């Protein structure tokens, strides 16, 4: 095998491991192919700070972009995820965008989330969910609504985000109540109001309509819901009206 092929095999092996062995294989892979984005993605996991991690994500993203080349981007924009060779770069770019968001660098995060959707409109990575949150944090409500309308997938994320957006823009309107009535098919409200306590850790996997999906949603969006004065009381009263 070529060095690039050997590096890829080491990365595949690293994906199956945890701890020091995982990082050792990533380093060995980068010796064989210094431009492999997944090597940097893995090493960022053991970084001592988010600032160190973001530097590794950026390095992997930029090297991956150079490796693919400008012509490749022009030719394949719109269906990137369907091409296996793009995925390490796409993972690094998503990690970089999310790390920027976590550091409060909203404009940079939004730019990269948007670029991910341009490269892969099918959004196999779920970048739209993080982008929606970033839009709200940045008070870009028009863009947030356009994003919801474009990806109207009927998930808990979309259903409750329609309620959230209406509340942020227009407060406790009849439309907000109507949207909430349509949304009350999960335990999201119990977690927002504090009736149920959120677990310390985010569930890694979840199925549609599951308790884990509700937990994931609230953990990501709770800080925005809490910006609305009187939200817990309104949610509680609205739920009582539905049950009565």
Task: Describe what this molecule looks like in 3D.
- This is Tetratricopeptide TPR_2 repeat protein.
- Keywords: TPR repeat.
- TPR repeats lie at residues 90-123.
- Pfam families: TPR_19.
- The chain has a domain at 152-244.
- It is elongated and about 65 Å long.
- By secondary structure, the protein is mainly alpha-helical.
- The chain has helices at residues 3-15, 20-32, 37-43, 50-68, 70-76, 87-102, 106-119, 127-137, 141-150, 156-170, 174-183, 188-193, 211-225, 231-243.
- The mean pLDDT is 94.
- The longest helix has 19 residues, at 50-68.
- It contains 14 helices and no strands.
- 69% of the residues lie in helices and 0% in strands.
């Amino acid at each position: 095998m070529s060095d690039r092929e050997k590096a890829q095999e080491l990365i595949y092996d690293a994906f199956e491991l945890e701890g020091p062995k995982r990082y050792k294989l990533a380093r060995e892979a980068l010796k064989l192919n210094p431009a492999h984005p997944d090597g940097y993605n893995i090493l960022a996991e053991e970084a001592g700070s988010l600032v160190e991690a973001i530097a590794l994500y950026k390095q992997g993203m930029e090297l991956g972009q150079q490796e693919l080349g400008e012509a490749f981007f022009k030719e394949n924009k719109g269906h990137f995820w369907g091409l296996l060779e793009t995925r390490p770069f796409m993972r690094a770019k998503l990690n970089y965008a999310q790390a920027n968001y976590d550091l409060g660098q909203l404009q940079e995060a939004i730019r990269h989330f948007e670029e991910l959707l341009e490269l892969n409109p099918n959004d196999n990575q779920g970048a739209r969910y993080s982008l929606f949150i970033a839009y709200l944090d940045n008070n870009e409500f028009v863009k947030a609504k356009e994003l919801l309308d474009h990806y109207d997938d009927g998930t808990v994320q979309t259903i409750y985000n329609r309620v959230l957006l209406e509340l942020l823009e227009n407060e406790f309107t009849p439309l907000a109540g109507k949207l909430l009535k349509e949304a009350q098919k999960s335990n999201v409200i119990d977690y927002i109001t504090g009736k149920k306590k959120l677990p310390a850790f985010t569930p890694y996997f979840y199925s549609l309509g599951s308790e884990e999906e509700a937990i994931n949603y609230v953990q990501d969006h709770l800080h925005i819901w809490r910006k609305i004065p009187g939200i817990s009381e309104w949610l509680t009263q609205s739920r009582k009206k539905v049950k009565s």
